[in-house]
Request: fold
Amino acid sequence: MCNAFFGFKESPFNLSPDPAFLYRSAQHEEALANLIYGVQSRKGFIVLTGEVGTGKTTLLECLPDYLYEHRVEFAFLFTLRIKPEEMYEMIAYDLDLRCNRSSKTEIIDALNDLLIQQANQGYTVVLIVDEAHNLAWEVLEEIRMLGNFENRTGKLLQVILAG
Ligand SMILES: Nc1ncnc2c1ncn2[C@@H]1O[C@H](COP(=O)(O)OP(=O)(O)OP(=O)(O)O)[C@@H](O)[C@H]1O
Ligand SMILES: [Mg+2]
Reply:
């Protein structure tokens, strides 16, 4: 009823983060610009931190627009009470890796192929991890190792850790 009264097209105060409603404060603009800069310059690891409810997830939801536009492949991890093998499965699913998705070695092999192939074409690949502070140590360690993929121009996988 209030939507009709106020002429809203959608219900306000939705709990799920919607990038269309991101209020781009100076800090949010700067954070988004830094995420994009970090990806472009192949820094390897990029960290986004902020107080609870300050819009980190909403900001991350804005990133795919940029990534799709620039043909950058990415995987988005957000359920983090996971085991390392589940993380690999999620990455394989998001990046559409053609391999046996229950085999860590096959996934790493297929990921390596994708990273090299993308790098040869001048592209990079991004792994976005929200709620990274909740990661189990073993998963964090696996992510650290994924950061080791590199060639002489820089890191092949850009990892964004938000939390
Ligand atoms: N800059 C913003 N513009 C629009 N809405 C925002 C902004 N910042 C936060 N919100 C709103 O506040 C709520 C929490 O935002 P969000 O989930 O993105 O925060 P968060 O930093 O990821 O929080 P948490 O630390 O709990 O994960 C969401 O409903 C979101 O729509
Ligand atoms: Mg969040």
In short: The first helix runs from residue 2 to 6. The two ends are 37 Å apart (CA to CA). The first strand starts at residue 45 and ends at 48.
